Amino acid sequence: MKKLLVTGIAGMMFLLAGCNAGGSAQSAGGSQESLVANADDVKKAGGSIDTNMDSKGMDDKGMDGKGMESMGTGQGLSDMKKIPEFKAKTSDGKDVSNDIFKDSKLTLVNVWGSWCHPCVEELPELQKVYEKMKDKGVNVVGIAQDSSSSPDAVKDIIKKGGLTYTNIFPEGKLLDAVMNNQAFPLTLLVDSEGNVVGEPLKGGSDEAHFTEMIEKALADMK
In angstroms, how far is CA 104 from the centroid of its own chain? Predict the structure, then answer.
């Protein structure tokens, strides 16, 4: 618990300081290893990706070492049955709202942060899912948790990763819900009306697992 307290304080100070991940992200190369360079800097600065947790069903690495707990205290997206109504901007400055879900049978929504090693590490896997499923009525949408504090770092990761699916810079109620998540990354499946389908995935994953989730959800929706 002592280590958790120290880690939590360090993580909170880091978030309040605006993550300051832009420099490391901008100086990184184009490989997958470069995409996680800024998360490695977080570790060196005193933050921790693998945080110790209490005895609530998690091991001593927290989310099996695949994510980072949030500092939020209210209801997060992982607890919601429907995505809250929102209006926001995408990473390239376009207007976006809940209407983004209407044209797809299913949308995989991935909540991530530029400071989170497991988040950044799985982005190429999500791009593969998008390319494979976009012609099958399935969309992929990212929500960048630290887009207001570290927009340049987020945009740099998106550019260097060659991510072509929509990434949202959340505002208002959507931002509140994102900041109150219990773990990052977080992946949800959402139907055309914005309802969350099935159980959320807390922690990093890969193309095969994401595809399995999608196919199961589509089968259940028939």
Answer: 20
pLDDT per residue as tens digits for the range 131-180: 999 999 999 999 999 999 999 999 999 999 999 999 999 999 999 999 99
Q: What angle do CA 149, 150, 153 make, to 5 degrees?
A: 175
pLDDT at 4: 40
Distances (CA, A) of 29 to 19, 110, 121: 20, 24, 14
Q: pTM score, two decimals?
A: 0.71
Cβ contacts of residue 55 below 8 Å, gap of 6+? Answer: none
122 Rama sector, left if φ>0, alpha if ψ -120 to 50, beta otherwise? alpha
pLDDT digits (tens, 9 = 90+) for 11-29: 443 333 333 333 333 333 3
CA distance between the termini of the chain: 46
User: What is the DSSP annotation of the chain?
Assistant: -HHHHHHHHHHHHHHHTT---HHHHHTS-SSHHHHTHHHHHHHHTT--SS----SSS--TTSGGGT-EE----S--GGG-SBPPP-EEEETTS-EEEGGGGTT-SEEEEEEE-TT-HHHHHHHHHHHHHHHHHGGGTEEEEEEETTTTT-HHHHHHHHHHTT--SEEEE--HHHHHHHHT-SEESEEEEEETTSBEEEEEEES---HHHHHHHHHHHHHHH-
